[in-house]
Structures are given as structure tokens and as C-alpha cells.
Design a protein that fits this description.
Blueprint (H helix, E strand, L loop, with lengths): L2 H18 L5 E8 L14 E8 L9 E9 L2 H6 L3 E4 L3 E2 L6 E2 L10 E10 L11 E4 L13 E2 L9 H4 L4 E4 L12 E11 L5 E11 L1 E6 L2 E6 L4 E6 L7 E11 L13 E10 L5 E4 L5 E3 L17 E2 L1 E5 L9 E2 L8 E9 L3 E11 L1 E6 L2 E2 L15 E8 L7 E10 L21 E10 L4 E5 L5 E3 L4 E5 L3 E5 L18 E2 L1 E2 L6 E4 L5 E7 L3 E6 L2 E18 L6 E7 L1 E2 L5 E2 L9 E5 L6 E3 L6 E9 L10 E8 L5 E5 L2 H17 L22 H8 L3 H13 L27 H13 L3 H20 L32 H22 L3 H22 E2 L4 E2 L4 H10 L4 H18 L14 H7 L3 H8 L7 H6 L30 H9 L2 E3 L8 E4 L9 E8 L2 E10 L2 E8 L4 E7 L7 E2 L2 E2 L6 E7 L2 E6 L2 E7 L9
Parallel strand pairs: 15-22, 27-36, 33-43, 51-55
Antiparallel strand pairs: 1-2, 2-6, 3-4, 3-5, 3-7, 7-8, 9-29, 9-35, 10-21, 11-16, 11-19, 12-15, 12-17, 13-14, 13-16, 17-18, 19-20, 23-28, 23-31, 24-27, 24-29, 25-26, 25-28, 29-30, 31-34, 32-33, 37-46, 38-39, 39-44, 39-45, 39-46, 40-43, 40-45, 41-42, 47-52, 48-49, 50-51, 52-53, 53-54, 54-60, ...
Helix pairs in contact: 5-16, 6-7, 6-8, 7-8, 8-9, 9-10, 9-11, 11-12, 13-14
Amino acid sequence: MHRRLALAVGFVLATAAPSLAAPASLRVEDLRCEYLIDPLGIDARAPRLSWRSTAVKDAARGLSQSAYQIRVARSQAALSEGEDTLWDTGKTASDQSLHVSYAGKPLGSHDACWWSVRIWDRDGNASDWSKPGRWTMGLLDPKDWTGKWIGHDGGDTTESPTAMLEGASWIWYPAGNPSIGAPIGGRFFRKKVNLPEGRRIVKATLTMTADDSFGVFVNGKLGGQGASWASVKALDLTPLLRPGANTLAVTAVNAESTTVTPDKNPAGLIGLLKVEFESGEPLLAPTDASWRAGDEHIIGWEREDFDDSKWAAARESGKLGSAPWGMVGGSEHRRLPARMLRREFDASKQVRRATASVCGLGFFDLHVNGRLVSDQLMNPALTGYDRRACYVTFDLSDQVKQGRNALGVVLGNGRYFAPRVNDPVPMHSYGYPKLLLQLRVEYADGSVENVVSDENWKLTTDGPIRSDNEFDGEEYDARREMPGWSSPGFDDSKWRKADLVAAPGGTLEAQMIEPIRITEVLKPVALTNPKPGVFLVDFGQAFYGMVCLKVAGPAGRSVRLHTSFNVTPDGLLNAANDRSAYNTDVYTLKGEGDETWSPRFKGNATRFVQVEGYPGTPDASNFEGLVTHTDMEPTGRFACSNPLINRIYLNARWGTRMQNRSVPMEPDRDERMPWSGHPAKTSESEGYAFNVARFYDHFLHNYRAHQAEDGSLQEILPPYWTFNSKDIVWPSVVTVIPDWHYNFYGDLKILADNYDCIRRWVLFHEKAYQKPDGTIDYCNYGDWVDGSWIKGAVDKRVTSRPLISSAYYYNNCRIVARAARLLGKADDARRFDAMAEKAKAGFNARFFNPKSNKYESETQASYVFPLAFGLVSEANRAAVVANLVDEIMVKNHGHTSVGLVGMQWFMQVLTNAGRADVAYTVATQTTRPSWGYMVSKGATTSWERWDTDTQDGGMNGESQKILSGNLEAWLYQTLGGINYDPERPGFKHIILRPWPVGDLTFVRAEHTSRYGRIDSEWKLADGAFAWTVTVPPNTTATVYVPSTDAAAVTEGGKPAGQAEGVKFERAEPGFAVYSVGSGTYAFRSPAWKPAASR
């Protein structure tokens, strides 16, 4: 028989075989390669394959996989015909359906792999073959890249603080010699500014700083603040100014110095207001002797109608650059137009396959033959570009045609050309945007041609995107659009040749993380007109993304979209939270009818949009909110009978969507940094709601790439801020995340990939910081924003920083020891176990009082950390828990007092201690500090501070989830009862244990694990507890039914122990415990009464 025919017949017979035997109870679905669906251009040489089995009949129980067979071929046709096979496992006896490593023929760059799997159920019946999946390989060797880095270095019009203060003088109240020494305290300054009628204001910027701090009011309304004379602030005052008379009022404070005496403590204020109009020269108002100065705080001094005629003229101490301040620095408004690049080429034959590999830094859009090729945004994923840079692969087989073709790429700045240089701290800028592209065209006759980035490309910086800066906004001039620029035949004779530029320096790696996309479109809930020509759009929900504008008007009209979270009492945008970030997009119309636009290369966190310059009167249909983040697959839902809990859950979920943008990163103001301390254990909550497996693998890869030679790690990685405090608590993400990730996804590779990093990091702390008793004193941030931060707080106790760092050091040792055991590194396991024991003994000897069973500081967090990490001896555990409960329920009246770090462990500690009722009391509070208080103040995410509404508007306001801690996981684990089993990770074995507490009458929780959907729905009615659970195929579960009488528990109307697939294991206080296989079960516990605690 001919070999091809034999293979085809063999495959058909194998496929048909199940129909000749008993039908299988399972089918195969949801094929994944490295957690991704049909990924393109991966660089894992032995990718892991996973699938999910589902029941053919919904009512079936106890279903499991007993064997599998995987086939991989070079094409879909070859797979279906049994040809060109790369790998055939044959029937493999195993229940493994996750992370099966490819072990076929070696794979090379650009290889396409099509695969399918079938399984055998517990009775030996084979399923049908699954629908085929696909993956393709990227460029696996640096020599496979034949393209060159191209771009254009230069062309930015950075507005430096120096230039923006040119002509201004340092001023102060006229007493003594302020440039040498001035009294401690505040001084007050006023200036009348008259703006001409009939000239439309386009932009008004006040550039200012003071020694030591200042606050500015415009016509009686706060316009912004500055906290350091060395850092100039550029404040957007456009919304606050109007034609005619305006009043600037500034309070400046000379703070007490700890290093010099008052007679050598200088004071000064310097600033310049620049008002730009639609046409003509700008108006400048510098600080000088024309300003009025006062030395006494008088009620109403900042108002327009205040009489300052008796105030003195300000005294000039010198021009910009004079001593003692010199040339102050600050937040440059870095403006750089987008680069547009193009190249035409001929495809001489029939195209079979076309694949583009692209790395465009900072961000890029790829166009082919006049069309944008993808809905992906802000590619590539964020990295430290001098260590690693990601390339993205696109299948262009349907776009590239035989004949003339054109490629077009637009480069945005992203974090490569940094949005800031020195504000609020030095920022890492990697250079000017640049492109590396390689298009591989495979023809039907088997020949191959490459089209690459090189000096034959053309480039222009004269396109419509005049500036894109994540902190300040995107400026788009539609009059500069170039129709057809990425199509064949476009006249690019006026474009320049692209320059060959230096490579970024990092290793090129395939982007193996879900892309950023628009995942939801919000419609406005309100549109108001607080003052003539100014409109305020309210989307009703804080989100990260862009605003889509729909407008028609005359060419040259500019519409400004200024975004933020809060509104002033008179209905205007309150931008104090933005600090020095402008957060303003500007769209200039081309005047050709209806126009629709949204930014491409930046987003920001917002709820409200202040619109100025709109031609006519808009309505709500002219605006949309484009919710944008890493396109993480939703995997969880939660609801209960308490509406407040439901809203708090949604707030935390929205917080995840706001911060996860290829790395977990703050979404607002002038910071927007990937702080390490925030996600740690909080990220476990995200795992219940979204599939974050690849997301956090990418995040941890950045940490491995940036580990210092001494083993230390920065608290911000990628290092867009450049400092490194070598902290122990914040970078503990490198231990905490792999630990829960392994429990959650059953993926040993996350531990293997990060093991060397975490081992070296913990050993660094042992060498650098450990005291002889095994404790560590170094903790840079403490329990950030805990209750002691609240203005007017009665309890000002702060948790001991040595206690926190020592507890984390112990936990990190413990995690490394566990990882070593799982990876078969016995010597390391013993070493780190010994380190942990030493740390534990020293911790309790130093911080624990055995007479009172209290820990140093006696704060809630001082109990939470030792309880969470296992530092408390069993003999003392009950007493320590009692002290924690007393701190919460008595001393804090049912409120928490922990901060960012403590909240990551707080709720689960209480559940594990049998006090889920106390945790629920905390969760349902509505007075400060609490999540319910945030909700009562209109919050739609979480705040960074418990008192953001009355305290520092420059903190991250309503844009964060860091104070949500691990709340979401607690809702799923404690109220819903859905828990993983660390001994059989990845939800291979599930622990179902709900805690009906408080006023709850029902809970519905659902989590889709890699094995399938886990459901838990319970309700209380007529004193009975009714609970329906679903366990996915190929898994088992231990079920804890809340009960005071195990013999009375039923399942499906029968005594539970006699029901199909249910085995009674034991009775525990408050629970009857059963083991089950897959399936849906309906338990009922009659005459059930919730206990105060269990």
C-alpha cells in the first residue's frame, strides 16, 4: 500500500474507532498552548499543551480521564490526513490534561504546528478527536533576524522647566533677606490677570515651584500644589480661567529645616503663567514685583473679591538660576510626534503564508495595504528594553497578495521615550522610538522571501499624531492625515529615508501574553454644562482607557478632553489628583463632516471628561469610554444577598481591569509605575476573576531579567523609576506570586523558572540584613497607608517595621524551601528550612510577649503577619487570635486598621482562625476605614488611602485596588467556599467549604479552573442550608457541608452518605465532610443554625 494512503487510512480508522465501541462519557474542548488559544510566534521550544474535558451527559458523576493521545502535524490538512506528523504520543495512560510538554520532532523558526487530542474515560472508552488547535514558532535564534533597527532620533519639542520659567523671578514677602533666611511659615501672594475678550483660550499652563511648597488658587478654586522647590510643577489651569479679570492666589510655605538654622533657611516662590490662544501671541504672567504679598492668613484671601490693596509689593530675590536655588528641574512636558514608516514590495508569486514579526518601541500599529491588521493596542508588552524586548507575530496570509503590497507602521512613544525625566523622581528613558520588522512570505511553490526593516524604508514625523504621552495626553491634528499612506502607490517623495539606529540592547523574545484590547465600551450616564463652552461627561464608572470623540465642525477647531476622577462643587473637573500629569487629549478637526477619533498610544484612568472647544453643543452620543487592559479571560463570577458586598466586589474587579496593562501598574496621575508591593498576594484574587497565568509569568520574567548581581531586586520593575532601595517586603512578589500561582494552576514551571532568582534574593537578605538572632530590621515602606495615616485618627499606632521585614523574611525562606522540595533540590530544601527555623525562633524571642500573647506594636497587622505565615506556635495560637479579634471588634469597633501589605493576608487569616464572622463584620462596615465607606462616597473602585475623600488628593485616589487586598479571593474561598488544595494543585482536587455568616441568605460563586467550571450556590431558607455544587470532570473534591447534625444531611433527597458518588468522611465541628468526584450535587442541611464562629 502507498505510504500516504496507509497513513490516511490509519488515521481514519483511529478516528472512527470510538463509534465501534461504547460511547465515551467525555469530550475534549478548549485546547491551549502555553495557556493561550492558537498562539502565534512563540519561542518555547517544548511548549506545554492543555485541554479540558466536559461531560457528554450533564447528569453524569465521577468522570475522569484515564489516557490521552496527542497528534501534531505541520498543517491542518496533514493533521486530518495523518501526514507530516511531528508528534504522536500514542495512547498514554495518564489523567494529566494540563501542561503536557511537546516531545516530538525538533521545532524550528516559523514552524506551524496543528494539533488534536483525544482521551479515554475511566471505563476505557475513547472520545472523538478534538477540533484542531494551532501554534506557530517564532524566531528562535538571533541569527534568524535579518532586519535592521530603523527610526529617527530627534524631533522632540520638550518644554523644559527652565524654558517655561524664563523671565520669572524668585519672590517673597518683603522682610529681611529671603534668599538667605526667612521665618518659618506661610506667606500669601496674589496677582490680577486680565485676559482679552474674544480670544478663545487653547491652553493655560502655570509653571511654578516654591521653597518649600505651594498651593495655587484660580478665581477662588484650587488649581494645584507642589511639594518640593527642586521639582517644578506644570499645572493646567485652562478650565479655571476665563476672558476678562482673573485672580491668581498662591500660598507658599517655608518649612522648618532639620539641617540649618532659620537665619540660613531661604524662602522663595517662582512661577510663570502662559496662556495660549487659538491665534496670536500668548500672554505671559511671571512672578515679579507686581505681585502682592501678605504675611497673615485671612479668611477668604484666595477669593476674587478679596481686597489686597493694603498688601505689600512682593520682593524680588533674583531671576531664574540665581542663588541659592540655581536652575531648578522638574517635569518636562515631553512632546514627540509619532513616527510613520512605510515600505512597498512585490510578491511575485501566489502567496501561501505570510507572517510578520514586529518589535516597535515604545508602541506600534501595523498596517498592510491600507488596513490596520489587528485590534491589539499598545504592543509590545512593557519590559525593561535594555534587558528584554518583545516582538509580536501576525498572520498576514489573507492581507498580503500576489503583486504590489505596502507595509506601514506607526510608532508611539510608550515607555521607551519616557513621559517624564525627573518628576517626581528620575525616570528611565531608553531613547527614541524604533522598529524591527521581518515579514516572511512563503509562496505556493515552496520558495520564501523576506521583507525586512532596513534603510529602504521611508519615514515621516509630519503625520497627525503630534504627541503621545501617557501622562499628558495625545495630540492629534486630523488636517495632517495622509489618506492611503499604507497602500501601494502612495506618493512618499517628501518623506525622508529611515535611519539605521542602535538596537535597544535587550534580548528579543516572543510576546507570550494576551494583548491589550478594548474590552468594553461605556456610554455616558450624564452630560452637564457647568460654564459656557465647558461640558462635563460622566461615565458613571472609573476605568482605564481612552475617550472616543464624535464631532463635526470647522477645520482647525481644537477639542480638548481633560480626564480625571473627581468634580469640584461647581461641577468642573477636579484635577488635583493628577499632580503634574496633564491628562489632556487634543483633537484638531479637518472639517470634512462627521469625524470620529480616539487615542492610539496612551490611556489613563478616568471617570469624568471635561470637554472644551467643542463646536456647538454635544450630547451623550458624542462620547464613548473605551475600557482598555490586557485581554484576560474572565474566569469568575460572584454575587450574594448583600448589595454592599456585591458593589465592593465589583469595585475590586474594576481595579484589576484598571491596573493590568501587560504589567500591574498604577493607572493615573504622574506616577503610573509597576510597583511590586501591590500585586503580591492580591494577585491571587485576580486569579479567581481572570486567567492571569501568562500575565504574571511575564511580570516575573521582568524581575529575573533585572535582578542585580548581588541578588537584590528593585521595588519597581521594569525600572521606569530608577531607584533601588533593596527592600525585602515589596519585592516579595517574586516568592509570593510563584507560590500561589503553582497552587492555582498546578504549573511547576513557574517555580522552576523563578527558582534561581528567589534563591539568590533570599540569600542576599541573609547576607546583607540578617541579625545574629535571625531577624531583619530593614523594611522601607512598612504597612503602607494603614489606619494611622487617617487624618484625625485616634489610634496612631504603627506596625513595627522590623516585625514586618522579619516575618516576610521567614515566609520567603519557607517558600524557597517548599519550591526546592517540589523541584527535587533536597540540599537547598534543608538549607532554607534551617534558615526559616532560625528566623522563626528569633522572631518570637524578639517580638512576642508570652505573658500577654501579644506581638510588638499590638496592632492588627502585628498579629496578622505571624498568623498568616505560621510563626505562631500552636500552643499560643488561640490566645493570639483572641488578641487580634479584640483589636478589631473592641478597640476598632469592628473595623480594620491594616494597610496595603496587611490587607493581603487579613481576611484569610480570620477565616483560617475560625472567625469568618469577624471578617464579614469588617467587610460590611460603612464608616471609615472600610470599603463600604468608599462606596458610600461614590467610589467605583478602591482608594489608595482609607481617607482619600478628605485627605491627600494627590494620592492615587479612586483608581486603585491596593486596599482591596485579597478580598476577592476571600469572597470566593470563604463565602463561596471554592478553594484549591496545595497538595493537589491547580484545582485537580477542590476543597469546597463555605462559611455562611452574618446576614447572608444566599451566595453564588463560580470559578472556571483549567479543568472546568466549579460552581457553588447556597441559600438559607426556613432554617435549612441548601447548597448546589458542581465539580468538573477529571477532578475530585472534599465537600464541607455546614451542619450541626451530619446524619441529617441529604444529597438529592437521600441521606448524603448513600447518594451516588458521595462518600461520608467524617464530622467536624460545624461541618459534615464528604468526598465526591465530578458532577453536580444538591446538599441540604436541615434545621441548620449559623454559629457565631467556627
